Amino acid sequence: MNTKKYRYPSVLTVAGFDGSGGAGIQADIKTISALGCYATSALTALPVQNTQGVRTIYPIPYQAVQEQIETILDDIFPDAIKIGMVHTSELVDTIVDTFARYADTPPVVFDPVMVATSGDKLIADQTITTIVERLFPIAAVITPNMDEAAILAEMPVRTLDDMYLAGEKIQKLGCRSVLLKGGHLEAPRLISLYFEAGGAVHEFSFDKFDTNNTHGSGCTLSSAIASYIALGNNLLDSVSNGQKYVHEAIFRGRDVQIGKGNGPLNHFFNPQQLTKYDLV
Asked: What Pfam family is a match, any one (predicted)?
């Protein structure tokens, strides 16, 4: 009889809700699962939204957020953490203070969700300072898009030169590394920039194609990066592989109509079985 025990690499997502299934914690769980990791979650907010936009946002009590995180960390300690929607300063403090009570917090991927694909602003203005002061220092990488980078760097971000300058400014705010996503760049190809902790900047380029099905692409990317970290990849490879996964997921879902607005990605274009590691 085989008595050997194994474990799954796990990723904890701390994020908001999306009942339409394309973004937020639903997209995170799909992504983590599709890449062969075990998904756990803590809900930070209850946006009422669909593919056409956000109608309202209902808060989750801060004590409930704290208890959700503690319950998971006490039982299924993750190999990586993805943090998404944190829309108040109190919520930022709750998350950071909760993680601080645990030794050896795993790598954190923070997606500074400020603007939805639909253009809706999702974050309170006073929260930005708290995010920079408290969340940036604990994140291994943050993943702003061009609109979010413009808010953080306090400058217009429209060109590739703007992206280089904004990325340098954001990194000086105290985060270790920055992946600045260029999905809205007016250029023949999609270009993203990864600013490493040591000062190196890596440029990633992908083919463009026409589709409205990009709802949840930022959530998916940050979760994919966290999943690749949990699978044992270094940060640069995780950033690279995460982008390749998202680009392919968008491409494979480009001609599918789900909803009346910006549709979701095809997260399960090549689902992996749950990875099993020896239990040490």
From this structure: Phos_pyr_kin
